[in-house]
């Protein structure tokens, strides 16, 4: 196997896999290095929500970026199935954000108005008109977004990786990168245990583990999230349900993912009893029939949060050819397709949206005091 490539991707989560896929599809010789296995970290822990309208309440470059990314999924689902044989389990059954206090309704109406202006369907509905009849009707109103969707996060990540291999990418698992190699301000490759691989372009997609390279990536906060899944006797909901501090995501096979806690500066994968009890209690209040469900499993993942909440996407200052794509926090699955095309365009030197370039730059003004 040759040790020289056009691009080397460091990190085999959804960002690394999607960028490897996009670049290899464009005809480049790509090497993806993962210290564990593909989708070993947050990309397997994620619930897979494509929550553009649940996450964003005002216009911003990130909102537009997310909207563009969500629009790529229907075509991508078919493409990845053909090229990898993996079904990413795209479900487009909408989402509901419930509020439990009357004084929150005006805020919901403002969000619905903003999103409608942005040409995405959203409306405020009452408990009497809600399409999910198993929900407890003790909420005041809900923001209903019928075009929201979800996928299986691990299936998506593995499909990207498999499809990248289909286009000629080389993927090496259990291969930790110890150092980024450079000479006279130009990246030259990476060093693993006893081996060096050379390339003129290196892209770091290591999630919260990017902190292993502090000389290149500015500070961010690792945020641990705990989740669990249950199996129900029959389908209880079709739409994804959001409330303050809890979400319910219905999957195939009468499976529902319940999440998630948010614990900054924790990187262990332990799941606390108190966290499970809190999530189950809240979920049962939202969906009383969960009382008869069977617990399937519990898990935790760690997500990288930047100071201003925007991801790092672009070239590292003062090191030509070294790029970063990380800091997507809880929207990594949603943002992966657009991140891949954006990063590939930057690597190729193509013109990209200036607002995206400025917002996601590692040199942006909001990071100066970090």
TrEMBL record:
Entries under Pfam families matching the protein: DAO (PF01266)
Protein's UniProt keywords contain Oxidoreductase: yes
Recorded metabolic or biological pathway in which this protein acts: Cofactor biosynthesis; thiamine diphosphate biosynthesis
Domain of life: Bacteria
Reaction it catalyzes: glycine + O2 + H2O = glyoxylate + H2O2 + NH4(+)
Keywords of the record: Oxidoreductase, Thiamine biosynthesis
GO molecular function: flavin adenine dinucleotide binding; glycine oxidase activity
Residue ranges annotated for the FAD dependent oxidoreductase domain, each copy included: 8-345
EC nos: 1.4.3.19
Entry annotated with the keyword Iron-sulfur: no
GO biological process: thiamine biosynthetic process; thiamine diphosphate biosynthetic process
CC annotations in GO: cytoplasm
NCBIfam families documented for this protein: thiamin_ThiO
Cited PANTHER family: GLYCINE OXIDASE (PTHR13847:SF289), SARCOSINE DEHYDROGENASE-RELATED (PTHR13847)
Name this protein carries in UniProt: glycine oxidase
């Amino acid at each position: 196997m040759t040790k020289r490539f056009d691009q080397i991707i460091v990190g085999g989560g959804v960002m690394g896999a999607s960028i490897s896929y996009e670049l290899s599809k464009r005809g480049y010789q790509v090497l993806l290095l993962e210290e564990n296995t593909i989708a070993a970290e947050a990309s397997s822990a994620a619930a897979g929500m494509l929550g553009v309208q649940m996450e964003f309440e005002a216009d911003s470059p990130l909102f537009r970026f997310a909207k563009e990314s969500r629009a790529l999924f229907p075509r991508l689902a078919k493409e990845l199935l053909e090229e990898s044989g993996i079904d990413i389990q795209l479900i487009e059954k909408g989402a509901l954000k419930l509020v439990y206090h009357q004084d929150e309704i005006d805020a919901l109406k403002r969000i619905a108005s903003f999103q409608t202006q942005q040409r995405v369907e959203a409306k405020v509905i009452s408990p009497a008109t809600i399409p999910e009849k198993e929900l407890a009707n003790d909420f005041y109103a809900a923001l209903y977004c019928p075009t929201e969707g979800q996928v299986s996060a691990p299936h998506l990540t593995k499909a990207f990786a498999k499809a990248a291999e289909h286009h000629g990418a080389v993927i090496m698992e259990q291969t930790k990168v110890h150092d980024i190699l450079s000479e006279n301000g130009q990246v030259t490759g990476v060093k693993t245990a006893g081996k060096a691989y050379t390339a003129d372009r290196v892209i770091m997609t290591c999630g919260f583990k990017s902190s292993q390279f502090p000389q290149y990536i500015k500070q961010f906060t690792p945020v641990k999230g705990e989740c669990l899944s249950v199996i129900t006797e029959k389908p209880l909901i079709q739409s994804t349900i959001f409330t303050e501090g809890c979400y319910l995501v219905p999957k195939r096979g009468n499976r529902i993912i319940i999440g998630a806690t948010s614990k900054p500066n924790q990187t262990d994968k332990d799941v606390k009893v108190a966290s499970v009890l809190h999530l189950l209690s809240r979920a049962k209040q939202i969906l009383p029939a969960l009382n008869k469900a069977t617990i399937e499993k519990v898990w935790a993942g760690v997500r990288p949060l930047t100071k201003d909440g925007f991801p790092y996407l672009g070239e590292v200052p003062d090191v030509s050819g070294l790029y970063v794509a990380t800091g997507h926090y809880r929207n990594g699955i949603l943002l992966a397709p657009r991140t891949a095309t954006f990063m590939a365009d930057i690597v190729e030197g193509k013109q990209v949206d200036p607002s995206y370039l400025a917002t996601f730059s590692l040199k942006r003004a909001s990071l100066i005091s970090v």
